[in-house]
Amino acid sequence: MLIIDGYDISKYAAESQFTFLNVANSDGFWELDSDCVVFGQKSFAGGSKARISPGTSYILGPIDAISGILKLLEANYTCSADNLGQLNCNCNENYPDFVFQLSGVQFKIKSAGYLQKVDEYCHPTFGYSTVTNTWILGDTFLRRFYTLYDKAKRSQLYIKLC
To answer: How confident is the model over 53-78, as pLDDT tens digits?
Structure first.
């Protein structure tokens, strides 16, 4: 079904699955507060911003946070990372969740959502952001949720996929 200039919530999910978030339109980006990002048991980059970017393929984050996450993968999951961020390991291991707390609401991405197997390597679908203290949430994040943008009310509606 294609609906232009509107939406029918009943087509997506039960009402209890709706999460409304207020966003700012900063420099043409839909921007939220990123309270924290948790990978496994470690928290990264509290007090930063998160930009929703349907035109970006990966999740991009602050250099220190992404470097820390890659080190956690390498240290705790018997992986070795080369300079391209390839992980020489089994993609099916029980990797930790990537959890984004945005404006007080948690959004979880399982390892199958952020690791992509190519040949014998796992490639993380996240990388470094060049925007200071900002996470760029691209398709790796967005494909896990239905996302509706309401420009008139300056809010955003996420509906968790079932």
So the answer is: 888 999 999 988 988 888 887 766 65
